UniProtKB/TrEMBL annotation, chain A:
This is Decaprenylphosphoryl-beta-D-ribose oxidase. One of its GO terms (molecular function) is FAD binding. SUPFAM superfamilies: FAD-binding/transporter-associated domain-like. It comes from the Bacteria. PANTHER family: D-ARABINONO-1,4-LACTONE OXIDASE (PTHR43762:SF1), L-GULONOLACTONE OXIDASE (PTHR43762).
Automatic annotation (TrEMBL), chain B:
The lineage of its organism: Bacteria, Bacillati, Actinomycetota, Actinomycetes, Kitasatosporales. It comes from Actinacidiphila bryophytorum. InterPro entries: NAD(P)-bd_dom_sf, Sc_DH/Rdtase_CS, SDR_fam. SUPFAM superfamilies: NAD(P)-binding Rossmann-fold domains (SSF51735). Its EC number is 1.-.-.-. This is Uncharacterized oxidoreductase in mprA 5'region. The keyword Lipid biosynthesis does not apply.
Length: 459, 251
């Protein structure tokens, strides 16, 4: 449990993990409720430093700091300013995208980039430079950030914009919180007429069919993603269900919805129970689920109206869904390989299929142009994300082999999902790593900002 | 830092010439381990052990460490932890003694107890405190099934391991929630130098199998592991055997 900041340095250490619930480490969790408290926490942190943490949705150890301080930023949750004419919001780093949607949708505005969950903070969205189903058109989150209030490791607070301080800005974008603590940000919004989506669904018979469909008409949709069945083998390898769509215009709504076109009332089930056994999601159960999910999807369906929450964030309907993997937790593996490396993608999908990794949340997406973030993940090409129970025997070595395939194809894995990459592979995947290290030592000479991820990977 | 599968990047082995210790190090070096500290009494054997790990790509340091010199533990081990985070400490030192002789020579028996129990208690406490400060890490302690029920044939060794085992169970609970993971390993008869010449007991195992079990235990964050796993059931039975019967068992 987060302790109030007033408890000061005597606050007791608690065990912290990422969303995948692997590799716990203990840290003092401080919850600053003002910028001054955050500044004091960074200035007074001990030798093991401090790292900002939002809603803990990073899968690995990005927001953990063994033996040091973890700043729970959700106490900084004020929305300072909304420019409903030009579509700009100025808010604290601890404000969640969920909260932004609640406040902004009634005004006809939506977040520029929405990942698979609304329960991420603005600070976390900047630190991971998150992407969503609209990456092929809109890029990643930081493309839409106008300014960041950044508390660097030297204890100074700086207003960082891409124009005035491009280095610090683009190192912070995707920098996993290691350039400093984001205190507030100015984010550009996107206008919407309704809170409904019009969605086209189609099935793809195999991986080549899927890639052909995505390449052919992704540009006609604002949002595009494919759920892929990684347990299917043989001729069915890579069969998938594509869902693509856009915000529904007002005139597409039936009369009963027109009265309140911007309503945002996502439903939530009770939370997943705390103690579930390992192995609930084995090959058999996931295989059955995947078969069902594929067959349930319509072969082709156009213009279905769907609620925004079920289109973007189906898993948010089950709070604490990460518990379904049991005590052993899970890892998520997400990589991207560039256009022209389709053969590498095919090879990896085949390998995952023949290894029978029980993954029911596998997603394939075609990325558009990259943004300049130094450690930002997306590059133009194909990204595949899959969840795997961490207790699967031989998984560690298997993922190491996939890393090599990905790196050899000039691709990379996503640090916000990572809990197990080898340090030597990181430099091959992120060529600006040395620049990043140099910038960190410039703004943070005593190394006050650090995390388990930074220690593990030698960032 | 350990990764999602509990594989450590840096390793400290107390008892740097232990065959189980080295088998574990070799296994972990093929995973994530890059830095290994081998602590033991300076000897050619220790240097040879270091060289064997260097040859498979690890950066190895040897540390002069004497389990019996408990007064020096804090300083000697403190220096190791000052070099950087240690993700895993493997407490692998121990002596079997010679039961027949030790019964005749109490000072020799005391030495077995001092190495296996007092020395291990001191080193464990020093390491646990250092791990707690860094907020993460595993302390893996080699106990033995011999500590589960004292046998006529080796109760001096067995009693020292019984003490260590009980100590570790308590330490694991003391460290619960502190980010530090304490794991007790209870191997059966392991074919090593220490047991050379002794008749192998049923369910005998090898250092390599113990190493594999330790790696699995790290991944699962187990608190107690048996090697081989079947010993858990066997020993549960043996523990409850009536004494007259147990005394007559040919073990």
């Amino acid at each position: 449990m987060p302790v109030p900041f007033a408890a000061g340095p005597a606050a007791e250490a608690v065990s912290v993990t990422g969303w995948g619930r692997t590799a716990p480490s203990s840290a003092q969790v401080l919850r600053p409720s003002s910028y001054e408290e955050a500044v004091a926490a960074v200035r007074e942190c001990g030798g093991r430093g401090a790292i900002a943490r939002g809603l803990g949705r990073a899968y690995g150890d990005a927001a953990q700091n063994a033996g040091g301080a973890v700043l729970d930023m959700t106490g900084l949750d004020r929305i300072h300013e909304i420019d409903a004419v030009n579509g700009l919001v100025v808010c604290d780093a601890g404000v969640s995208l969920h909260r932004l949607m609640q406040v902004l949708l009634p005004l006809g505005w939506f977040v520029p980039v929405s990942p698979g969950t609304r329960y991420v903070t603005v600070g976390g969205a900047i630190g991971a430079d998150i992407h969503g189903k609209n990456h092929h058109l809109s890029g990643s989150f930081c493309r839409h950030v106008r300014a960041v209030e950044l508390l660097t490791g030297d204890g100074e607070t700086r207003l960082v914009t891409p124009e005035d301080e491009p280095d610090l800005f683009w190192a912070t974008a995707g920098g996993m919180g290691l350039t400093g603590v984001v205190l507030a940000a100015t984010v550009e919004l996107m206008p919407v007429e309704t809170s409904m989506m019009t969605v086209d669904t189609e099935r793809a018979a195999d991986l080549d069919d899927l890639m052909a469909r995505l390449t052919a008409d992704d540009h006609r949709y604002r949002y595009s993603v494919a759920w892929i069945d990684l347990l299917a083998r043989g001729a069915k390898t890579g069969r998938a269900v594509l869902t693509r769509g856009d915000h529904a215009p007002l005139d597409a709504l039936p009369d009963r919805l027109r009265a309140d076109p911007l309503a945002f009332r996502p439903g939530r089930l009770p939370a997943a129970p705390r103690f579930l056994p390992d192995g609930l999601l084995g090959r058999r159960s996931v295989g059955l689920f995947n078969e069902f999910w594929y067959r349930k999807a319509p072969r082709e369906q156009r213009g279905r109206l769907q609620r925004l929450s079920s289109f973007f964030h189906p898993l948010d309907g089950l709070p604490e869904w990460n518990r379904i993997y049991g005590r052993g937790g899970f890892v998520q593996y997400q990589f991207v390989v560039g256009h022209g490396e389709e053969e590498a993608l095919r090879r990896i999908v085949r390998r995952i299929g023949s290894r029978r990794c029980p993954s029911f949340l596998a997603v394939l997406k075609r990325f558009g142009d990259a943004d300049p973030g130094w450690l930002s993940f997306p590059v133009p090409g194909w990204t595949l994300a899959l969840d795997i129970p961490a207790t699967l025997p031989g998984l560690a070595a298997f993922l190491d082999e996939l890393d090599d395939e990905v790196a050899a194809a000039g691709g990379r894995v996503y640090l916000a999902k990572d809990a197990r990459l080898r340090p030597d592979v990181l430099a091959r995947m992120y060529p600006r790593l040395d620049d990043f290290r140099a910038l960190r030592s410039r703004y943070d000479p005593r190394g006050a900002i650090t995390s388990d991820l930074a220690r593990r990977l030698g960032v | 830092m350990k990764d999602a599968f509990g594989a450590p990047q840096s390793l400290l082995i107390l008892g740097g010439t232990s065959e189980i210790g080295l088998a574990t190090a070799r296994r972990l070096v093929t995973r994530r381990t890059r830095t290994v500290f081998l602590a033991g009494r300076p000897s050619e054997g220790l240097e040879a052990a270091a060289e064997s790990l260097r040859s498979i790509g690890a950066e190895v340091h040897t540390v002069a460490f004497d389990a019996l010199d408990t007064g020096s533990h804090e300083v000697v081990l403190g220096k190791v932890f000052a070099e950087g985070d240690i993700d895993m400490v493997l407490l692998a030192f121990g002596v079997l003694g010679d039961q027949a002789r030790d019964e005749q020579e109490p000072p020799a028996a005391v030495q077995v107890a001092q190495v296996n129990y007092t020395g291990a208690v001191s080193a464990s406490l020093v390491c646990a405190a250092a791990l707690q400060t860094q907020g993460h890490g595993s302390l893996v302690v080699l106990s033995s099934v011999a500590g589960e029920r004292a046998r006529r044939a080796n109760f001096i060794y067995g009693s020292s391991k019984a003490g260590l085992d009980a100590f570790c169970q308590g330490l694991a609970d003391a460290m619960h929630g502190s980010g530090v993971h304490v794991m007790t390993v209870r191997p059966g008869f392991v074919r090593t130098r220490m047991t050379a010449g002794l008749p192998a007991a049923p369910l005998a195992t090898t250092p390599g199998e113990v190493a594999a079990a330790i790696e699995l235990g790290l991944r699962r964050r187990s608190t107690t592991i048996w090697v081989p796993g079947a010993l858990r059931v066997v020993m549960a039975g043996i523990r409850h055997l009536p004494r007259p019967l147990f005394r007559r068992l040919p073990v």
